[in-house]
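Entry 14. Ran structure prediction on the chain below.
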Amino acid sequence: AATAAALKINPDHPLARLIQADLWTATGDLQQASDGFRWFVRYYNRAQPTDAETLMLVGRGAAQYARWKSVSQIFDFIVNTVCADALKADKECWEAHWLAGELLLEKYNRADGMPELQKALAINPHAAAVHVVLAEAALEDQKYDEALAHVEGVLAINPRELDALRVKSKTLVLQGRLDEADKLLQTTLSACPNEQRTLAIAAFLETLRSEEISVERLQELLRHLDDIAGWESDDSKFEQVVVRLAKVNPHPGYFLEELGALFEGQRKFRYAEACYSQAIATMPQLSQPKTELGMLYFQAGRLEEAQSLLDAAFKADPYHVRVSNMRKVLRVLDGYATIQTPHFVIRADSQLDGVLAKYMAEELEQVYKGLAGHQWFSARMIGLPWLQTVGASTGLIIAMTSPAATNEPFNWARVLRHEFVHIVTLQQTDFNIPHWFTEALATRAEGYPHPKEWDAILIRRVKSGNLKNLDNIHLGFQRAESREDWDFAYCQSVLYAEYFIERFGNDALPKLLNAYRHTRSTDIALREAYGVEKADVEQGYREFLDHRVASLTQSAEDPVLDEEAATKRYQTDPQSLTSRADFAQVRLRKRDFKQAEELARSVLEEDPRNSIAATVLAQMLLVQKDEEAAVKTLISAYDPQHPDRRLWQMLGQLQLKRQEHAAAFAHFERAKTVFPKDAFWLRGLAEAAEGLGKELELK
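Output, structure tokens:
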């Protein structure tokens, strides 16, 4: 009513026109809204305003028209003419820098966008709109503390700033602080109950707190948005949010776009696809859902569909940096040769990696066969169809750097196995599985002993109390501040898995995997799998770590290598077998594989039982995919009178991997008497016994 009254007095009132167009958008009257935003383009051409305030209103309205109608020239005109003219009229017009920066960041042009936003803050350090844009940019990089700093500064001045409240709520949800987020969302929605992005956050929160809606029901619900009276809603809070919004706005494109992005951030790709697809159908004016759906299809290996959507997105907006870059990647992939096997589609540069791709195809089929034979890895166990072809998967694809394009070699077969286990576990749980657990399963499935460096890090971290728990261990992967943080995230993940096996039995991991099929909540999964509370698990895990560290520090035969001291010893006495063997370890860690292998071989020529040199050479042989030679090397250096824990671990793991269960059983049985405080041998013994089909008798 107020807007209509203002326009009756002055039909050319820019602020009233902008509010009116926004209201039409909020109620789903998209044609009226489009005409309302177009008014700003015509008004500028007719009136040629020169004052900064009017130019900024024109810029905002015209930008929305350009977004909806894919008129990329208008974006350029706004940034380089409208904003520039506003600053000529008023050098203190911080809004000009804000609008230019926001538009540039929309196109993923951070190089030009961020300086504009900083210029805005230099004029007005408390500009709420600028801090909100910077907070949203920080969220994209998972910099939650930075995002909160921006919005909390705004809220300290104006506690009712709605955009700041929305971004803070979103940050709290992404941090897992659901109760705090819920309280803040209620406050925000009481002031503005129909704001689409805020409602999307509230709806997403409900999927985290209660049983998730099925993707089929979500699709059906979204198809009823423009006929919501015909929908038979259940009592879930999620559906209540959607139904109430649809009664006000049957075309809530911004709601669907935001909800899709939240689902995608949680790797709930089928849910994200449903939201983006419906956003495109219900509000085709929006370009972002098309871009996001194209990127989603790329991640899923649906390259033709991705190409079609991204080509259309680029045609509509050639300034979008992310779209432009992804189209270049797709063009490169289009030139790759394709190898198809019963379960995989492999794309590779035929000139650079044509031969290697054929070996990878064979390796992947062997990995598939091996995992399918593992009962608890089999999807049949949890009632899902078995793995889909990776190239057409609704889950993930494996992207791997070409070994020919790196300066140093790596074990590509080990990488493939690790990444394929991610695909298995993610698809089995419909992406509910937390990051740490899929990493633990993938790392264990590699079939190699853990890096020796982990022991030193574990001892140091346990003694200092610098540990993650099940609530924050994912941050070690997502926001590692150092290589050690990254390594220790893997170490702790594997140790959680080992602790579960030790406490809850050999079927502990499949039980937990199955529990994650039904929930994303670790609290609920632990209750379902083991009947225990998370606090109890954490207490027992800490005791487990204390015992592990005690066994490591008491193990005189497995000292931590001092790389600097080992280097100096070699430089002083390069003929010494001990200094050469230790320096071979140093070169291996530095990824100087050629010198590491040369040093190890030179030591073994003089002392075939040098366990340190044997483990270094065995690792090099494994990189070269020569498992048989690696086993022979380790057996040659095997000395029951002088046991080396690292060598014995590597030999046992290789024997299990090669399904030499009888030899492995004998080896682990001997080892557990030599290293009685290390549970590694008992776990290996149990796996060997399972391979032999015999029941393990513990005394």
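Residues 504 and 678 are 17 Å apart (CA to CA). Will compare against last week's run tomorrow.
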